[in-house]
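Reviewer 2 asked us to include a model.

Predict the structure of this chain.
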Amino acid sequence: MSSDPLRIILIDDEHLIRGALAAMLDLEEDLHVVAEASDLASGTAALREHTPDVAVVDLQLPDGDGLEVCAQAQEVSPGTRCMILTSHPRPGYLKRALETGVLGFLPKTASADQLASAVRSIAEGRRAIDPELAAETISSGQSPLTPRESDVLEFAADGASIEQIARRAHLAPGTVRNYLSNAQAKLQAANRHEAVAIARRHGWI
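Predicted model (structure tokens):
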């Protein structure tokens, strides 16, 4: 008698991608998608209701960070293993994911076979990390930026003004300027736009 299929939930706000993932995974006899969610709140609720074997989570959700879902999974559904599937496979994100206890981390360019294999691996407690990203992460080194400098630089990424960044970060404009200046100096960047580009290239924001 065959064992029951692994129970999976998908948390991704891109409906077309989420639907395609569900269809691909359900083609596998040993995998079954039991629920789908589009944001952090509904994802956490789905975890609590279904207690799946594996949660496949988008890194960037409309109401928060996908890693928050994985952190909450440890409380609301301790038996669930978490995997990040992202359009932004950067070393800094992988490092944060591993620190959160995430076992799987794949880019959305992964094949259906790679995804299914990764789900099976992490369900068994084994890591499933994109090898190219793992190699890049090893060579990227630690970020020289403090968490606050990283935050402010990320808020600056869309070209926001000092005042807009200050409102987003709940800081005084002068403090924002200091953080940006420190980040530029540490990254040896000519301006904050170059600093953003350097930090993104290394996956530090």
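The mean pLDDT is 90. Residues 147-201 form a domain with the Arc Repressor Mutant, subunit A fold (CATH 1.10.10.10). We have added this to the supplementary material.
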